[in-house]
Request: fold
Amino acid sequence: MTQYTIPAEGLVAKPAHELAAMIQSGEVTSREVTQAFLDRIAEVDGELGAFLHVGADEALAAADKVDEQVKNGEQPASALAGVPLALKDLLVTTDAPTTAASKMLEGYMSPYDATAVAKLRAAGIPILGKTNLDEFAMGSSTENSAYKPTKNPHDLERVPGGSGGGTAAALAAGEAPLGIGTDTGGSIRQPASLTGTVGVKPTYGGVSRYGVIACASSLDQVGPCANTVLDTALLHEIIGGHDEFDATSVNREVPACADAAREGASGDLQGVKIGRVKQFDRPGTQEGVTETINAAFAQLERQGAEIVEVDCPSFHDVMEAYYIIQTSEVSSNLARFDGMRYGQRVGDDGTRSAEEVMAATRGEGFGAEVKRRIILGTYALSVGYYDAYYLQAQRVRTLVAQDFAKAFERCDVIAAPATPTTAFKLGDKVDDPLAMYNFDLFTLPLNLAGLPGMSVPAGKASDTNLPVGLQLIAPAFEDARLYRVGAAFEAGR
Ligand code: GLN
Reply:
């Protein structure tokens, strides 16, 4: 079994907050750090396939700017200044192509930066490149990328999860110490779980979606990824906050994520109530995963937490509701990729009508899964079916939010598995869309309710020797609780 996990030594072995401290103290330059990760990418990414584009010159130029500031004794631009990052290729950037891993957008250059990207640049974070994903962020394995699959660093025959498999694999392979993902139904947490990294989906509205190519707008959220809980917390504070360009971003203070992570690092969970969802103890979950999650609950209890069982009957209908709402929004969001407004234009030879060119463009530009979702969503929204599907799904959404609200009357945080099994083999589920959809069972509910969630490494399953993630869920705008409990769990392992 070939592995490309993080080397035991060297700069690429260090977590982001340590690298930031070394850069600020002058022990090492941001250029040296950035170059070390670029070298690691050059060494392993040919086989791993985490990146769609590497921007070495741009990253090093950003690093030099930080080094200049350090040399001049200036205040650091942020707590992570100088530490490089891998960016999911769903966020638009002016200095690199943005493809959403689709042929439709091959070579597309954006005239502006996504708000999250602008914040990263202002924070002095060099962007190493754009990472692979399932086309338009639809999928659970990164195999729906129109360019290439990404492999799991723990076992190159297996998937890194999806849709954000590129970012997760880059972190797990030591190609980057920080990453950005987006999570519509689990695309940050699920790959984090399968690669043994940390990934956080903030509360809906916590991070601006401006400049994020829309998948399903009422579910999408940008979030931080890294190899430690504190690193995700520091990154969350950098990208979070209100943005006048995104009407759904909330005008509240960014949660104190880093303080919460530092508090949690003591490992003490005395007085914290942690919910365990009855409906998540499901047959079909891999034995090694159940074992690891049981051990995680036992550990949390040893650390002082009280475990309470909570009941969320609506979770039974979450898969169906999600795939109606998600596909409906996709059918509307992706209408703009028609070769006229956006996207490659196909077959415009001067003899064809606009409709014919649009049909040729969409027929060639989109992959099979994207087409499937557009067709499903268009059907769900069509006259006569709207009430039966879309409206019904919205009702389930309300029930899910109510179940969570009731659960959080009895606990501070919910803990759960992030995925039903460890990483599966490349090719295993590509011909079975339902099996692929079912894989996200544990991560979907909180997107429907807009709640924040985290996947934090819980160890390896004894039956497959592959990483398992513990998922933590908090009430809306209580993202800090994830960092407190996540850091405590991490410290107690
Ligand atoms: N796997 C889910 C889907 O395919 C979630 C995707 C995501 O979070 N972007 O819709």
Summary: The first strand starts at residue 51 and ends at 54. Residues 387-407 form the longest helix (21 residues). The two ends are 26 Å apart (CA to CA). The chain is about 40% helix and 10% strand.
